[in-house]
Every structure is written in structure tokens, then in C-alpha cells.
Design brief:
It contains seven helices and 13 strands. By secondary structure, the protein is of the alpha/beta class. The protein has a domain at 146-259 and 289-330: Zn-dependent exopeptidases (Aminopeptidase). It has an eleven-stranded mixed beta sheet, sandwiched between helices. It has a two-stranded antiparallel ribbon with strand order 9-10. The model is unreliable at 1-8, 13-30, 32-42, 111-137 and 338-343 (pLDDT under 50).
Length: 347
């Protein structure tokens, strides 16, 4: 308890410094940016609300609870690249910069190990393969793909439908994952929906879900979906697809992840297919200074499916449409030779 009080006190001091020490142009101090990542991001998220991203003219371009720092990158639906130059309180200041794969990870992140300590994970070089010998590319074409769905933040829920924003161990996000799993299974994919709970919703949740991912790598999944919901205003995610209310999707990519380029390639292909099939369904791509366990596999994808302020049914509709997107990217699955063939995972 004494250690917890000390951590809370230190967090308060850091927050006060962040407010009282603004830099020119609204940019935060680099040291404060890093300290905020450690002490003020329980679960790698805003501790109490959400961040508002603004461009150089002060226009709002994104609202999200996902943690950010100097160097984070937001890619909007029009492929505009907004680099974070400072975080001042809840306001995230950005500048528009040219698109380019080389600029995904700023040099200042090369030694950043504070957000997600890797004491438990191997640091893979850029040229390495993923665990199990997978190449750094998601295979395409007709094949019997295995897909993994899991939930790092297993308490996340949708207030209008679930009655509260969080239900420890059995959040409404499970229902969204189950809808996605059913749609993907109906499309012919082999789906593992791992419902392991990773509570509490804190900075250790990704360590606990890391064990879940590693356990499921034995099935050789092509894509691994960590399904979340955001904590931003409802307007950030509300949309209409084919005349029906639905939720937009925000991709989140770990910028300190050594497989960053491979993960971004996967996300870009999914985004392109999603926009072609269901225009307006993608909110954008956020590159944040963490790994989100994406260093374990090039096909690891984090999806923010709506916010706690929208009905769960909107996110479930999008989860159903997601099967169309995956089919377009991977190709129609080849039916198994026989039910229960050796080596088949059990969903």
C-alpha cells in the first residue's frame, strides 16, 4: 500500500509539472513525455478520459484514449500523416508531414523502453522472423487460414447496452469478439476466440495477454485480432454502412515494436480492403510508442471497435462486416480435408 501511495504521489507531481511547464508551441518536455508514459497510462491509455489531437491550425483530427507521446503518428482516412510534436494536458499537438515508411518510427523512440518493459519478451531484429519461424509477411491466396481473436482489456463494455463501461472478466467486448468469430467461421475460416480474462485493466494487462498470444501461436494463426473498444466521444466512431448504424474501426500499431514495418503492411492491406468494401468504416491508424504484443507476430492487429458510449450492436455490425474484409485480403479459405483433421485448433 505504501508503494502504491508513493506511485500516486509521483504521478500527481508529474501531472502538475506537465500542466505548469508548457513549452513553446504547446509541445511537452521530452522527459515529461516519457514519465507520463510510465505513470499516467494505466493499461496504456488515458487515465481518466481521452486525448484530443489537433493540427497546426487547431482543427480537431482525432479523439482517443489510446496513449500517445511525442513522435506518435496518426494516419487519417485520406492518408494524411500527422506527427505528434507535443502533449499538453489532454491536447495532442501535431504537424502534417509527408507520408513515408521510413518515418513510421521517429529516432527518439529507438531507446524508448519505458512504456512496455520487455523484461519478459525477446527483442527481435528487424530482419528476424516471428516466433515459430514465420516470415515477416502475411501469406495471401486461397488457403485454410487460422484466425485468433482475443481481448487484452477483457472488462471493456458498452454503456448503452451493457449498463456500465466495464464488467471485470466478462465485458461486452466478448460479444463483439464472438460476433466476429461467428462471421469469420461462416466465411470458412478456422477461428480461435480465446476468452481468457486479463483483468485488472492496468499496465500489466498486456503482459497477461502476451501469455494468451504465445499459447495460441501453436495453431499458426495468419491474423491475430486484439479487439478493444475506445473511450472517446461517440461521434468519433458513429457511421452508417449500407443504411445501417455501425461503428468505425481505429487501427493501433506499436511503434516501438521491432516488427513495425510488417505489422503496418498487414494493417494497410486490411484498411484498403475495408475502404473498398465498406467506405467510411475506418477511422484511421494510430502508431503509438508501445508494442501491444505485436512483436510476437507480423499478423498481429489491434482493433478499437467503437467507444463505450455507443450501443454494442453497432460494433457487432462492424464485426460482421469484418469477415468480408478478411476474406478480401486472405482469399476464400480452402475447406478442410475432413472434420477434426489432425492439428486443427479447437475454437
Amino acid at each position: 500500500m505504501t508503494h502504491r501511495r508513493g506511485a500516486v504521489l509521483l504521478a500527481g507531481i508529474i501531472l502538475a509539472l506537465a500542466v505548469l511547464m508548457p513549452a513553446a508551441g504547446g509541445a511537452g518536455h521530452p522527459l515529461l513525455d516519457r514519465l507520463r508514459q510510465v505513470f499516467l497510462r494505466p493499461g496504456l491509455e488515458h487515465p481518466t478520459g481521452y486525448y484530443t489531437f489537433v493540427d497546426e491550425a487547431g482543427n480537431v483530427i482525432l479523439r482517443t484514449a489510446v496513449s500517445v507521446a511525442r513522435g506518435s503518428l496518426f494516419i487519417d482516412p485520406d492518408d494524411n500523416h500527422y506527427r505528434v510534436v507535443g502533449v499538453r494536458g489532454d491536447i495532442v499537438h501535431t504537424v502534417l508531414e509527408p507520408a513515408g515508411e521510413a518515418a513510421l518510427r521517429p529516432p527518439s523512440w529507438s531507446g524508448l523502453q519505458l512504456v512496455e518493459p520487455r523484461l519478459w519478451s525477446p527483442v527481435l531484429p528487424e530482419s528476424a522472423t516471428a516466433p515459430g519461424g514465420r516470415d515477416l509477411a502475411v501469406p495471401l491466396g486461397a488457403a485454410r487460414h487460422v484466425l485468433l481473436i482475443y481481448h487484452t482489456h477483457s472488462d471493456e463494455s458498452y454503456t448503452p447496452t451493457d449498463g456500465r463501461h466495464a464488467i471485470p472478466g466478462n465485458g461486452g467486448i466478448y460479444d463483439v469478439g464472438e460476433t466476429m468469430a461467428s462471421a469469420l467461421s461462416a466465411s470458412g475460416f478456422t477461428v480461435v476466440h480465446d476468452r481468457t480474462a486479463h483483468d485488472p485493466h492496468d499496465g500489466g494487462a498486456y503482459l497477461r495477454s502476451r501469455r494468451t498470444v504465445r499459447r495460441n501461436l501453436q495453431f499458426g494463426p495468419t491474423l491475430l485480432f486484439d479487439v478493444h473498444r475506445d473511450a472517446s466521444p461517440a461521434s468519433e466512431y458513429l457511421t452508417t454502412i449500407d443504411g445501417q448504424p455501425a461503428s468505425k474501426i481505429l487501427f493501433v500499431v506499436g511503434g516501438t515494436n521491432p516488427l513495425l514495418s510488417a505489422n503496418m503492411s498487414t494493417v494497410r492491406r486490411l484498411r484498403a480492403a475495408a475502404e473498398e468494401l465498406h467506405p467510411g468504416i475506418i477511422r484511421g491508424i494510430l502508431v503509438s510508442p508501445a508494442t501491444f504484443n505485436q512483436d510476437l507476430d507480423p499478423g498481429a492487429v489491434l482493433l478499437e471497435m467503437g467507444t463505450y458510449l455507443i450501443p454494442k450492436s453497432y460494433a457487432q455490425r462492424t464485426a460482421t462486416l469484418w469477415a468480408n474484409v478478411v476474406s478480401a485480403v486472405l482469399g476464400a479459405p480452402t475447406p478442410p480435408e475432413a472434420p477434426g483433421a489432425a492439428g486443427d485448433p479447437t475454437p
